[in-house]
């Protein structure tokens, strides 16, 4: 059975690992809050109403696309397109290519930095694989002008960081919602994880500052991971109602 992403792809290794996937979205949640087109998800009210639930919904869709048979994955992308088209129709105009591109670009970036934080440095070929995989997803989403290798993506991503981010009222409100739905301690961990992962530009716009506790714990956590003792710790780090969804994320 041919899957949308080849079994040998580094993308499957990255997105089959629960803690790496959670870190991808922890980092992306910071950058996404700065996106100039974040107002699109405020239009439906679903993002501010349940930001953590939206995260797990996005993870579920992403893993479905990456791990399922090719025809099923493409059909799933078609459903995502239909949802977006319905929102566009209700609002009266289309989401720009730049809006879609920025989401794909940040998933590429946080896939790379999160994997390298826990595992090892990626080769150029592996980075090219990550970029081309998300470009294929973007192609089926009818997104134009996407890079297909790491070198080209890096130029476009740096441009996007410089021109398509801003700290707006939506940014502040979204971080308030993160705190409300996570609680004080988990919110503290989220910010500290973001300090480790995000680019200098994102850190500057959010005024996150330097990493604190999590950076000190990463070497110990890497050791715990080698012996598979970390899985219960991961489950403890999310609100109770999402524990089963976290367990379901492990694709190995």
Describe the structure.
This is ER-bound oxygenase mpaB/mpaB'/Rubber oxygenase catalytic domain-containing protein. It comes from Chitinophaga filiformis. Pfam families: MPAB_Lcp_cat. Residues 49-183 form the ER-bound oxygenase mpaB/mpaB'/Rubber oxygenase catalytic domain. The chain is mainly alpha-helical. The protein is globular. The longest helix is centred in the first third of the chain and has 22 residues, at 70-91. It has helices spanning 10-15, 18-34, 39-44, 46-49, 51-67, 70-91, 97-118, 124-140, 150-163, 169-182, 184-197, 200-206, 213-226, 231-236, 243-249. It is built from 15 helices and no strands. α7 (97-118) packs antiparallel against α8 (124-140), α7 (97-118) crosses α9 and α10 crosses α11. The model has no long low-confidence stretch (mean pLDDT 87). The chain has one domain (10-249).
What attributes characterize this protein structure?
about 250 residues, mainly alpha, about 0% strand, globular
